[in-house]
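Task: complex structure prediction.
Instruction: return C-alpha cells for all chains below.
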Amino acid sequence: MSGSTTWRELRGARHDLPALLAFRRSGLTPAARRRVRLGAAAVAVLTVVVALVPAYVGDPADAGNVLALLPAAALGFAVVAIVSAVASAGGRELVPRDQAVAYPVSSAVDHLGALLMAPLNIAWLLQAWLLLGSTAWALGPTSWWAYQLPVLLWVLVATALAQVVGWCVEGVRRGPRGPLVFRLGVGVLAVAGAAVVLTGSVTAALDRSPTRLLLGGVLDGSAGRWWPWAAVVGGLVVALAGLVVVGAWPAGWALARPMREELRLEGGRHRARRTSRTELGALVRLDRASIWRSVPLRRGTLVLAVMPGLVALLGGLDWRTLMILPGLVVSGGALLFAVNAWCLDGRGMLWRENLPVAPSTALLARCWVLVELLLGAASLTLLLGALRAGVPTAAELAAVVSLTAVVTLQVVAGASRWSVQRPYAADLRSARATPAPPVVMVGYSARLALSTTVTSLLFSTLALLGNVAAVLLVALLMLLWSGWRLERVAQRWDEPVTRARVVVTVAG
Amino acid sequence: MRGLWVRFGEVDAVQGIDVAAQAGRATALLGRNGAGKSTTMRVLAGVIPPTAGHVQVDGVDVAADPMTVKRLTGYCPDVGGLVPRATPWEHLQLSARLRRLDGWEPRARDLLERFELGDVAHRVTSGFSHGMSRRLSVVLAAFHEPGVLLLDEPFDGVDPLGVEATLEVVADARARGAAVLVSTHLRELAMQACDQALVLRGGARVATLGSDELGGERGAETYRALLG
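Output:
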C-alpha cells in the first residue's frame, strides 16, 4: 500500500472510527449500555483513586526501593503489551470480521480500533494501575500531577509501540514461511533471555533500560525541575503521536497479506480415525479438534502456558510466588473461548442440537476438554517454574497441586455458567477475534482475576502455615463448591428453552 | 402439528400453524423471509421447544420426548449447520456414533460422492463455499435414512448438480416411506421435489396447495398473491 493511500486513510479515520464505534454500540441492549457506562465510570474512578490515594498513605522510607523498580516495571508493561499484541495477531477487532466485511473499513481504521481495544484487558489495566499506584506511594502528594503525567504517557506510548510491533510480527507471520520465521525469532529471544539470566546480567541489563529516562522525568516532576521534566513529557507526547500514526503502515502491510496459517488449517487434510467407542468420547474428540485446529486458541494456549512459566524460570521464583501463576494461566485460558464455550460449534450448533445425545453429555464433554486444556497449560507453566524453584515442602507441594485443581474447576464452573447465561455468536477463525464483545471480556477477566487471585492467596497462606491436612480439606471444600455450581449449570442446560436460546444465538 | 405457537421474547415467530406431513410424501413450506418456516423446522427437529400447540413426529410428542424425535428426524438447518473446524467425515462419524449406526461407512462414502464432496471428506468445513456447506448439510440430514427428513433451504446457493442430488435424496426418502418437509423460497424447485405446499405468511398458514396448482405461470401468480 502506498504512503499517500495510508495518509488518506488516516485522515478518513476521523469519520470512520466514530461511525464504527456507534455501530458497535448499536448492538448493545439498553441494559448492556448501562453496564458499559457503569464499568467505564468505575475504571475512571479507580484509576484516579489508584493514582492518588497511595500518595497519602505511602511510606517515604520505601521510596528508594519502589523507585528503583520503576524502570523495570515500565519495561515489563511494554513487554506484556507487546506479547498481547503479537498473540492477538496485531490487535483486537473493533468490529468482527464477518460484520465488517460489508463496509470499506481501512487498515488505518483497523489499526486505530485495535489501539482503542488494547486497554480493554484486565492485565493492561492492572499493570497500568500498578505503575501509577507505586509511583504515588513512593513520591507522596506534592506535585502529584507532574510526576504521574510521564507515567501515564509511558503507558500510552508502550501500548502504541506494542501495536506497531504486533502488526510487524503479524506481517512477518503471514509471509512465506512466516510461522517458521516467527518461531525462530521467538527461539532467539528465549535464548538471549536465558543467556542474560544465566550470566547473572539481569540487573546490569535493566540498568541500561531506556525506561530509566522515564524515572528521570518522574523525579524531575516531583522535584519541580520543569525544563528537564518538560523535555521528557514532550518526548513522550511526540513518541506517542508518531507511533500512533506510524502504526498504520505496518497494519496496512500485515492486513493485506493472506492469513496463511488459518488458510493452511482450513485447506489441510485430517486423517480419519476410528469411531470412538463411547458417546462422550466422540463428543470430546470433536471438541478437541475444534480447539486445536483454531489458530487463535492454539496460539493463545501456548502463549499462556509458556510465557508465565518462562518468567518464573528466568526470575527464579520460589514456590510461594509460583502459586499466583496457575490462577493467572487458567483465567487467561478461559478467556480464549470458555466464557462462551458453545461458540466453538458456530453455526454447527443447530445440527449438533438435532443429534440424539443427552444435553448433560454434551456439557460434560465440553467441560472435560476445558479442564484438559486449562490443567495442561497450568501444569506446563508450573513445570517450567519448578526448574529453578528448589525442592518444595510437603505443604507447598500439596498447596500448589490443590490450588491448580481448585482454580481449574472454579474457572470451568464460572465460564460454563456465563456460556449458558450470555451466549454470543463468535467466529474464532481469526486470532484477532474474541469469544464475546471486548467490553464484556473486560468484565469476565476482572471477575476471573479476582476470584483466582483470592484463591491463590488463600492457598499461599495455607502453605505458609505448613499444614498439609488443612490444605487438602480446604481444597476438598472448594472443589465441592465448584462441583455444586457446575451441577446448577447442568440443570439450566437441561432446560429446553434455555438451550434453544443458546443454540439460536450461537448459530447466529 | 396442531396450533404450533413459538414466541421469542415479544415476537411471535409462529402463530398457530397446523401441518400434517404423511409418510412417503414430500411437503414444501413456502413463504417470505420471516414467515416462520425455519422456526417450524427447528421445532420439528427438536432444536427449539414449542411455546404452545401440539407437535408430534411419528406419534412422538416433541415437547415430551425430544430425544426420540431427534432419532427419528434428519435435519438440514437453514444457516451453516456445520461445526467449523471438523471435517465432513468427522461429522458423519459423530452422527453414526450417536445414532448407533453400524457399517455406515459405505453409505457415507456413497452420499459424499453423489454430492461431489468425496475429495474434501477430510478437510475442515470452515474453508467450504456456501454451496458445499449446503450440500454437506443435506448429506448429514439424509445419512441415517430418517423417518422424517427436514430440509431447510437445501437449494440455497447450490449448483445444478447439487440440486439434482438433493432431489434424488428427497425421492429416495419418499420411496422408502419417509415423510419429507422442504422449506424454501424457490417455488419451482419446491414443486419438483414435493407434491403439496403450505404457504406461510407472518407466522401463520395461509394456504395448502397441490404441486399442480403452484406450477407454471399460473402457479407463480397464485403464489405472489398469497405472499401479499
